[in-house]
Design goal:
Chain lengths: ~140, ~625
């Protein structure tokens, strides 16, 4: 009942942190096209995202960043030393510049979602990507 | 025309091959479109232009959108301004159309309506536009209007960028706009500024040149913190050549207009919202005429100078109660409108213009009640008290009943019954142009509307049919004999309908068509019209085709009939995304040079195209 009211008739203000299932599908697609030298174990500071990824049988998710091999980072404040040694994918474009270790991002800019993978950074970190991600390769942060 | 339609339809079948991840991104963008979170289906018959629509249409000014709205048409007046009128209504009409920028209503005291000032405002900071016809939600907190146009600014959380856009058109106009938006230390901000030098075709009247060239400067600033507060500040300055002015042989003067507002909203827990705002508008014009300007008493004056200023202050408090089946909004608002006539020289006999002040006290409630998951009832009521220092006080009220139903996945219907009023403007009661009289005895107009809309939705297509009956008592109409607005004692009524079809070929390609007609006894502008809009995307190219039709009509000024021909306004917009930073755009307006014409002067019978033929090239750079 409430869902009907909210979805159709009432001004609805969703919080910016709410997870959209399209966003989950995109992240799943990106990580299914990536391979790293070790087994892919994902941790994220976005708990809703981590919970959704846990439902996906394709990936292993971990509760402790120490156990992860891949970090999906939304907030720079959650950047600890142990996280810095891992492969980092960010959800905010500015973090790509601020965290030199980060190799890619899914972010909103100019009202649109974008994907960027930084070519020199994946080469340095021996991250391999499939053909599907090639259109999103960039030489540098733009 | 045949070839044009052929081109419109054949190009829609050429689709580009998309990469799957790109499709997911587009679906993500579409699902997160802001209009899906702000639109209120229950508030009326809704037209939405999403951000993607606006960008692909290359809608640079609000006029680019207003000209497409069903049941309305655009016309140029003797001051060179392009204004919007209800189908069939003449230029002396004063349609009570409301304009909102986010949560702030641009309410004017010294203009006919807000569109005289903001009708050609720049849209570079706007994310999407919602247009409510027939009925507007009392929850908007406004004085009642026949149509509500709501502009929503870009969300800083989604912008995270600085961008600059420069445009040059075939008339030599120059347009520069910039937006910077993002988040800093938990605060969202948006900064926008634009400067536009607009040049237009020149015309001649009694061997004098008519020019409506002008300059416009606009800024918009917003700072907010999620669920805490929001501050908006906006200014607009217009400097325009006076075109024909009040006479027929203008000597080339200027009209200056400005508007600025500050709006502060504080959000409290438990769905309580408090807002306070202040706005100021001013207008100054000099008009010298070689032959002379005809005044109300029939005498001529060689020149007129008007300087007027107005302030509006508003404060409102709203509380929302949401339970399982019910969403109840209760609110109160206070408005004070003042105007100060600083100079009105050039009149032979002084009219009794007075500095004026109007206070409005409003109480309103709106209940949205779900009978069951498929049926929603809306009940709204609003009580207003007008305390006028110059005119007599009055009590007014509006009520609205609405019923929205989902009969199946495909069928949806809306029904509205509305009783509302339109209060005369200070422009009609307390201050006037030199060629008509004020009427302090004007009463508000009573309006009853019965409207219905049926929607048929399938996965790719949508068909909408709307039918409405409107009756007016004490209608505010212009009396040509006494040269003033009067309350017409005869009941006026009319019926109108529209039919709209939309088809989505895929996520990038769609077509929409629309027709409307209004059945009225007397008319002074197009009574029917139609539109075709075609959106296509081929790789990095966006192509938009638009054809707007407005039926011709006949005007009678007592000296014979003047025919205004059918209008066909065909525009094309093409943009190419060079790289992440650079986008190049080309737009051609009124390509056929057959857009509707406006009669700008009933004495000289000068007719000019409402939309001029022009091409504009624009470059947009994102930092």
């Amino acid at each position: 009942m409430k869902t009907f009211i909210l979805s159709l008739f009432i001004t609805l203000t969703l919080s910016a942190s709410a997870i959209n299932h399209h966003q989950i599908k995109i992240i799943e697609k990106i990580f299914s096209e990536i391979s790293i030298s070790t087994e892919l174990k994902i941790w994220s500071d976005n708990k809703k995202l981590l919970s959704e990824l846990k439902k996906c049988t394709k990936f292993i998710t971990v509760e402790n960043p120490k156990d992860a091999t891949m970090i999906i980072l939304e907030d720079r404040d959650n950047l600890s030393k142990e996280v810095l040694s891992k492969s980092i994918f960010v959800l905010n474009y500015n973090l790509l510049s601020k965290i030199p270790k980060s190799f890619g991002a899914l972010f909103w800019k100019k009202g649109r979602p974008n994907i960027v993978i930084i070519k020199p950074r994946i080469e340095t970190q021996s991250i391999e990507i499939s053909q599907a991600l090639h259109p999103y390769l960039e030489e540098r942060v733009w | 025309m045949k070839y044009l339609l052929l081109l419109l339809f054949t190009s829609s079948f050429l689709f580009s091959q998309n990469i799957m991840l790109d499709d997911l991104l587009k679906e993500y963008e579409d699902s997160e479109s802001l209009y899906k979170k702000t639109k209120q289906e229950s508030a009326g018959f809704l037209i939405v232009y999403s951000r993607d629509d606006l960008e692909r249409m290359q809608a640079y000014s609000l006029a680019d959108i207003l000209k497409t709205i069903r049941m309305y048409s655009m016309q140029v007046n003797n001051m060179g301004r392009t204004s919007i009128f209800q189908a069939g209504a003449g230029k002396a009409s004063s349609p009570p159309i409301k304009l909102y920028i986010d949560d702030f209503e641009i309410s004017t005291v010294i203009q006919r309506n807000a569109f005289d000032m903001y009708g050609d405002m720049d849209l570079y900071f706007v994310d999407h536009i919602e247009i409510y016809q027939g009925a507007s939600s009392i929850a908007f907190g406004n004085e009642p209007g026949s149509m509500v146009v709501r502009l929503y600014s870009k969300d800083p959380n989604r912008e995270n960028s600085r961008s600059l856009q420069v445009g040059l058109d075939s008339q030599n106009s120059l347009e520069i706009r910039a937006v910077d938006a993002g988040k800093v230390e938990g605060y969202n901000y948006l900064l926008y500024a634009s400067g536009i030098k607009k040049e237009s075709d020149k015309y001649r009247s009694n061997n004098h040149q008519l020019s409506r060239d002008g300059k416009r400067y606009q800024t918009h600033f917003r700072v907010s913190k999620d669920d805490n507060f929001r501050v908006d500040f906006d200014t607009i300055f217009n400097y325009n050549d006076i075109f024909g002015g009040f006479g027929t042989a203008p000597l080339g003067d200027e009209i200056q207009r400005s508007y600025g507002y500050l709006n502060i909203i504080k959000y409290f827990p438990n769905d309580i919202e408090f807002s306070i705002s202040a706005s100021q508008e001013s207008k100054e014009l000099s008009n010298s005429d070689e032959i002379g300007i005809k005044l109300v008493d029939g005498k001529l004056t060689k020149s007129i100078h008007i300087r007027i200023k107005s302030n509006t202050y508003k404060s409102s408090l709203k509380k929302r109660f949401i339970n399982d089946n019910s969403d109840l909004l209760i609110g109160a608002e206070f408005q004070r409108k003042t105007f100060n006539l600083q100079d009105y020289s050039g009149l032979n006999s002084l009219q009794d213009f007075k500095n004026d002040r109007l206070d409005i006290y409003m109480l309103y409630l709106e209940e949205l009640y779900n009978i069951n998951p498929e049926h929603l009832v809306t009940v709204s009521a609003k009580f207003d008290y007008y305390d006028n220092v110059f005119l007599k006080n009055s009590k007014e009220h509006s009520v609205k009943l609405g019923y929205t139903a989902l009969w199946s996945k495909a069928w949806q219907s809306k029904l509205f019954a509305i009783n509302k009023y339109v209060y005369p403007t200070l422009f009609q009661t307390s201050f006037s142009a030199p060629n008509y009289n004020i009427n302090p005895d004007l009463k508000s107009m009573d309006i009853n509307i019965f409207g219905s809309e049926i929607q048929y939705n399938q996965q790719k297509n949508k068909i909408i049919f709307g039918l409405a009956y409107k009756e007016m008592r004490n209608a505010l109409s212009f009396d040509k004999v006494h040269k003033k607005y009067i309350n017409n004692s005869q009941k006026k009524d009319f019926v109108r309908y529209y039919l709209r079809g939309e088809y989505n070929f895929d996520i990038d390609n769609k077509i929409s068509t629309e027709i409307f007609k209004i059945f009225k006894e007397v008319y002074s502008s197009p009574t029917s019209g139609g539109m075709i809009q075609l959106f296509n995307r081929f790789g990095k190219f966006d192509i938009y085709n638009e054809l707007i039709y407005r039926k011709g009509y006949t005007l009678n000024f007592g000296d014979g009939d003047i025919d205004i021909a059918d209008g066909y306004d065909y525009s094309v917009a093409i943009s190419y995304l060079v790289n992440h930073q650079l986008k190049i755009k080309l737009k051609a307006e009124n390509l056929l040079d057959k857009a509707s014409e406006s009669l700008v002067n009933s004495q000289t019978l000068l007719k000019i195209p409402t939309i001029e033929r022009r091409a504009v090239i624009t470059m947009e750079y994102t930092f």
